[in-house]
Specification:
By secondary structure, the protein is α/β, with parallel strands linked by helices. It is 36% helix and 14% strand. It has 11 helices and 8 strands. It has helices at residues 27-34, 42-54, 58-80, 98-105, 118-122, 146-150, 153-158, 182-191, 211-224, 233-238, 268-271; strands spanning 84-88, 110-115, 135-140, 166-170, 198-204, 244-245, 251-252, 273-279. The longest helix is centred in the N-terminal third of the chain and has 23 residues, at 58-80. It is globular and about 45 Å long. The structure holds S-adenosylmethionine. Residues 27-28, 31, 65-66, 69, 89-91, 115-117, 120, 142-144, 170-172, 175 line the site of S-adenosylmethionine.
């Protein structure tokens, strides 16, 4: 269950900064709604329900996405000894957050969170609850401006980019339109990571969907004003070009190293989301 440590922001308008527009749906708040959180508004819920009406397993998909992310970062921390993480497209804090997972492995782990939604900024305090031995930081920035992220003083203060880093782009790239050069953006971030770093990525796909379901979700996203780009397996694989996928490679998020997850695992069609972890040479 999401737990940002606060009561519903909807009932606490005094905490709402003016840049938060509650009259239109936002990806972070719609995701929070699907996850069962309390930091969403009628427009987000309406947009969420419009998708759920045509794709009822959307809630399974988002829960499995969080599970995938937790398994992937635990794997990087435990098996590969990675101790610092850059999580772009963090979302509204949802326990366990990345720092909680990796600091359970080593309390000295360091995490930088990045998101461009003002609602996430409002809740950033819940992300800054590092163990005393480690550190966390929150940067209000846009994935489409990777240099701003990479050169941000809070990132440079928190991470040592000469050391292997876990780069997390989890359920964010489908919000990046082709016109914004998603492959170039990922390439610039990956290029700034030292050898031994790893990319963790997940991405929604229409591959297992009947065309009419895809078309209706597409229409629901457009009606909500949320730009969304489904990508095929081949398009997803392009994000891993030049990298070294960790076995088992590209999978449904529900099955990537999911041996310890409770069976039965949701089907590929239930989640419609690819996941992978890949080494940066
Ligand atoms: C679906 S949520 C995923 C949250 C988290 N990564 C997870 O997988 O549970 C996507 C997040 O990406 C953020 N986001 C979307 N486009 C972004 C951009 N261009 N720059 C930074 N953050 C962005 C949204 O605000 C939202 O919080």
């Amino acid at each position: 269950m999401p737990d940002s440590g606060f009561r519903s922001i909807e009932h606490d308008p005094g905490r709402l900064p003016p840049e938060i527009n509650t009259s239109v749906a936002h990806p972070a708040r719609r995701y929070d709604y699907w996850l069962g959180g309390k930091d969403n508004f009628p427009a987000d819920r309406e947009a969420g329900e419009a998708v759920a009406a045509v794709f009822p397993s959307v809630r399974i998909g988002v829960l499995e996405n969080r599970r995938f992310m937790c398994r992937a970062v635990r794997f990087l921390a435990r098996e590969l000894g990675i101790r610092q993480f850059l999580d772009i497209g963090t979302g509204i804090p949802t326990s366990p957050n990345v720092h909680e997972v990796v600091q359970a492995v080593d309390p000295a782990s360091r995490v930088v969170y990045v998101d461009n939604d003002p609602i996430v900024l409002v809740h950033a305090r819940a992300l800054l609850t590092s163990s005393p031995e480690g550190a966390t930081a929150y940067i209000d920035a846009d994935l489409r401006e990777p240099e701003k992220i990479l050169n941000h003083p809070d990132l440079l203060r928190t991470l040592d980019l000469s050391q292997p880093t876990g780069l997390l782009l989890v359920a964010i790239l489908h919000f990046i339109m082709d016109a914004d050069d998603p492959y170039g953006v990922v390439g610039r971030l990956v290029g700034a990571m030292p050898s031994g770093s790893h990319l963790v990525v997940s991405h929604v796909t229409a591959d297992p969907m009947p065309p009419e379901v895809f078309a209706r979700i597409d229409a629901a996203n457009a009606a909500a004003g949320i730009p969304f780009r489904f990508r095929t397996r081949e398009e997803f694989a392009r994000f891993l070009d030049g990298l070294e996928p960790v076995p088992p490679g590209i999978q449904s998020i529900a099955t990537w190293r999911a041996e310890d997850e409770p069976p039965p695992r949701p089907s590929v069609a239930d989640t419609a989301t690819y996941g992978a972890v890949a080494g940066i040479p």
